[in-house]
From TrEMBL:
Protein name: Transcriptional regulator
Signal sequence, renumbered to the chain: none
Any one GO molecular-function label of the UniProt entry: DNA binding
SMART domains: HTH_LUXR
Record-linked InterPro entries: Sig_transdc_resp-reg_C-effctor, TrmB-like, Tscrpt_reg_LuxR_C, Tscrpt_reg_TrmB_N, WH-like_DNA-bd_sf, WH_DNA-bd_sf
A single GO BP: regulation of DNA-templated transcription
Pfam families: TrmB
Residue ranges occupied by any HTH luxR-type domain in the UniProt entry: 260-317
Amino acid sequence: MLEAVGLRPSEWRAYHVLMRLPTGTAEELAERLGLDIDEVAAALAVLQRRKAVTRTPDDPRRFRAVPPDLAFGPELRRRQRDLAVVEEAVDRLSTEYRNQLALRGAGELIEVVFGEAIGPRIVELERKAQKEVCGIMKSPTFAMRPSENVAEMEGLRAGIAYRSIYPREVLTIPGDPFELVKSVRHGEQARVIDETPLKMIMVDRAVAVVPVLPADSPEPSALLVYPSGLLDALVALFEAIWENATPLLATDDAVEPAGENAPSAQDLHLLSLLLAGLTDQAIAAQLGLSMRTVQRRVHGLIELAGVRTRLQLIWRAAHRNWL
């Protein structure tokens, strides 16, 4: 608690114990605190310089605690005055910033990037990410193919969070052109909805990239949206869609099931596709399986869950935290 007035934990503990005693020596305090005698002696030396403890006149080896209001009151009041000055300065700067922001032109809040410069710019922004990259996907992709986006794998390895929302239609395309399974197995959090309203990449909620013209237009273009009301709206849009989207699972096949009554990694993937609303035919195409195999595996999951219908399977899977 007294770290706020510049005391280290050992110094605060020594003062706190001494305050409860009439007087005490370094040895006595060390025994009570369970600390090394040298550490307690150093703490008492600091406290004495801070005028928080004094030596007793009859025995210089013994220390007495000074009342807290006298020991720390002056330092606390000084820090309060400094904090008030800082708060006033921050208020002035905030007011000036808001005034300047209101005077800025749209050119300072939005940047337009054209053609082949879009892909490298997205990679550059992703590589500068500090915390998170969010994406809303829509077919066809713009600027670059998923296989060309090496920045995502680099970011995932570096601990950057990736959250992506996909339209259900991309799960029906054979061959996984969006490399969904690979991305999810490397740590991407992916969710699926019926249809995505736009394409977007957003980095650290500080800048968003939104295409203006289609990727197949003579000269595609994209907007880079910087902190503004528009960026706030894009953040809110992403979070609203994310909240209502269905998680997509793609556990590594090498990972063993969590228990005897838990689905395999591939069955969990199949279950998440089923939850996303895909037909058996679309699931078969996505997993590279036959329709008969998909139906057999769904039936196996129904038996594993101890239910009779697919609807009951989804409910039981959620109840058992399979999804």
